[in-house]
Design brief:
It is a single chain. The protein is of the alpha+beta class. The chain has a domain of 72 residues. Helix content is 28%, strand content 18%. It is built from three helices and four strands. The protein has a four-stranded mixed sheet. The longest helix is centred in the C-terminal third of the chain and has 13 residues. The protein is elongated and about 60 Å long.
Length: 105
């Protein structure tokens, strides 16, 4: 939505609009991709999310005319950015020249 780029569903974050007790709409990340209602798909990056907010794309995609509170999605994206592995070594702990599925030592 934000960058208007395409990607596989597994690489994208689904966001839905939920109504709270006061009747306001909240943007909620749908991590299991099971929440009811229309969903908007975007890359799970802060840049893509900010572009979608600037363009007011969530209201159009989710067909909600009221203001949307993006706090939950913002917190989720900040959590993802904090969990990113460092650039030291490989993610799986294997050496760079070793195949990760190798059974030979």
């Amino acid at each position: 939505m934000g960058c208007r780029g395409t990607d596989s569903r597994s690489a994208l974050l689904r966001v839905v609009a939920e109504r709270n007790e006061q009747g306001q709409f909240l943007l909620v990340p749908d991590l299991r991709r099971r929440l009811p209602g229309r969903g908007a798909w975007l890359h799970p990056t802060r840049d893509c999310f900010d572009k979608a907010l600037r363009r007011r794309a969530f209201g159009r995609a989710l067909r909600v005319s009221a203001a949307l509170d993006p706090a939950a999605v913002t917190a989720h994206l900040e959590g993802i950015e904090q969990k990113k592995p460092s650039d030291k070594g490989t993610e799986s702990g294997f050496d760079a020249d070793e195949h990760p599925m190798s059974t030979q030592r």
